[in-house]
Amino acid sequence: MKTREDLEKAIQKLEKTTQKVLETRGYGEESRKLRILSEILREQLKNEDARYSTRSVR
Amino acid sequence: MKTLVIQLARFGDIFQSWPTLKALEDQGELHLLVRESFKDATIGLSDSITVHTMDSKIFLESVLVNQDLDQGLDRLNDFLNRMDFENFDRVVNLSFSPLSSELTAHFESKGAQVAGYTRHSDGFLNLAGDATAFFYAQVGVDRPNRFHLVDIFSMVADVELKPQSRWVGGFPRFSQVPVSPYVVLHVGASDLGKTYSTDQLKNLIQVFLQNRRENLVLIGTKKERTLSQSALPLLGTDRVWDLTGETQISDLFSIIEHSEFFMGCDSSPLQVASLLNKPILNFNNQHVNSYETGPFSQNWMVAPLEDLTELSVEKFQSWMAGIFAPRPRPLPSTDLSDTLWQMIESVYLGKSYPQKVLRQTVVHITELLEELPKVYVASDLPEDPIHQRILSQFEVLIERMEKEDPIVGVLIRWFNAERIRIPPGSLESVKESSRSKLNDFFMILSDWSQTLGKGVQFLDESPELLDHLGNIIKNFRFFNLPIAMEELEQLLCHLPTDAKLNPIKERLGQALRVPDYSLLADVLEYDLRPSLERPSEIVES
Lengths: 58, 541
Description:
A: elongated; B: Rossmann fold; 4 domains; six-stranded parallel beta sheet; 22 helices; 14 strands
């Protein structure tokens, strides 16, 4: 059975991979799919009804 | 036009999307994406809507259990390819989450027009549409929104909700309910904090059985059965049918449609009852915004959950009168919440600015009007270190103000949402867009301060009479009669002797003679309060 700690480690690992792709190839299909998987994992931390969003203001 | 609606939230959100879905059906082929675990909330939708499901479990299994990222990506590719095959012209995201924003961005990259949360080409959040920007800024926990989610969804999708799309019907009768008239009581709620205690449930059922002739049908999930079963033995009646744990969510339409009315806390059965346009008695706690997620049928009443702790017959009868009244009673509000809503209406709908504000609001407006011109200049050359300091101090300033001042907070969140909508581009185009938003911010503040200059009133300095009046109204509404009568007596002694108040005093006297305490509270709230707030006018009921 996977614990919260396992989940957090998996998220971190996935986000590292995503970050590498973003740095080398920018935001596109590949990084988007990685982010989709990251968000699916991250939702398990908050229960499958996340109503937050990342905020970035220019 | 082929449209995909993305609704990845829970049962209640899917049900609240139904009116928008029905309205979109007229525009062409319609598809809906929901999570596998909530797909039962689509049973009962028109057969012409194609439902797709996303099962998070298969991705979690790959990445988390099998620790195989490539397998996870392959499975995701399969899912996205199946969806891409449909070649959607338009995607409406009603989910407002990071996950759904990435999915929407995927479809946008394939050429679909989008509405709702998506991403800019550089991966940052984008708010596609004014209604989406409104949702981001003003909807959610501790936010002052008063639009119902049903209407917000329709605004995001840019459809008009006519009555025929707002409600549904025509479901067959459920075989396990009584033939004679019955009322449905949902014994649970969507979250633990929103539901009844055993005593509250027992009190409600007891008073219902004493005062109504209908049978009572209890619904809820298996885990809510312990709550219903703990209350029933205390009552000893065969008029209560306990169906908790014995129905599927899709059965609710059949059960609730043929009931006389529905009672329950904030939950998906409440949304089903609303979709069926049943009269509703909704119990809520202070953390739920009933404007946003409460009942949306034509007849309803919202009552505080805590009132069930000591429930009198009079209070129950007042609720019954409320749910069958020609129009729903206004939801509880405060001067501050009314002001916040007025602020929202002024920023988003062009209505007049609030003139009743907090003392600190005036200070904050002045401060912003001083700072914004400097920020505007600094934005033209953000590389300059002095300008960078001005810009970062400005961000700190508005972050602080948003936390301290809920009224200015409405405007700051509007401003932030507008800045999020700025797409990536050349430095010049981004600067120009940012300065345009700063200018809009300044113009709104400037107009508002002119309005305040003509006659500001302060929320945090109300006359003594109005302080007492609020408490008296509350005590009459909640039938705390000894306290209410004593306070009313004191109030009447201190009322101005203005003859213009005589008709109001006469109406108070009439209500006392019946006695009709609900009417009394109404006269105090809708006749006397406005007269004390605006002594130059008399409010006629």
